[in-house]
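Hi support team,

I submitted a single chain yesterday and got back a structure, but I'm not sure I'm reading the token output correctly. Could someone confirm the output below corresponds to the sequence I sent? I've pasted both exactly as they appear in my results page.

Thanks,
R.
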Amino acid sequence: MTANYLFYSFYSIIQGITEFIPISSSGHLNLLELIYIKSDSRNYLYETTAHFASLLALIFYLYRYNHLAFHNIKLNFIPIILATIPAIIVGALIKFYNISFFSLQIIGYTSIIGGLLLYFSDLKFFQVIKISNTKTKFLVAGIFQCLAFLPGFSRSGSCMIAFRMMGEDRKNSSILSLYLGMPIILISFLSNIADLEEIKFDFNLVIILVLTFVFAYLTLKLFINYINNIGFKPFVIYRLIFGLLILTLLD
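Hi R., thanks for writing in. Yes, this is the structure output for that exact sequence:
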């Protein structure tokens, strides 16, 4: 039981740190589950709790820094809805055809490919998509966001890539990716609830809820404050090492 508490403490910290930065929370959690549980099984109750804690941290951060002011909601509500439509369509198709991407090899390749795209999007030469209309800009980012259905690609990273290619600076790209994250995380949360066969409360749920919330909020605050200064290169390097390490271990 102690081992379980330690594992889910680590699980929660990883979820909190990786959810909103461009290195893929799903890739890291899938890897942890494959190594620890040694099966393709998923604990939907724990995943649901982690998504709920991440959503709470995101809402609290956006509220704390005035992103949920009425004028801002009014300005971005329709663009965010439009950006969410592609993910709903792709997600529905994946669920309908029962497609699974739960694979270490996929995580390895998507981590590398996503890292390279993140690197190129940060170069002036590749910031060539010129769109002034906010709704269209969000829709393009929403299409990119669908790449995150592949574990290891990163939802936030995919959105940042899109916004950077459309000329947004790093900080604004990161903040806009958070806007797009609200409905997606909410949908993931509701989807996982629908997949629950039973709800059985245990202390692991408390660990996941508290630690995920704390680390997600702290990571959000630090990432948004310093991303313009540190740039995306540290995340690119990490993704390349992470992906190559997985693929090497598979040989």
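A quick pointer for reading it: The chain has ten helices and no strands. Let us know if anything else looks off.

Best,
Support desk
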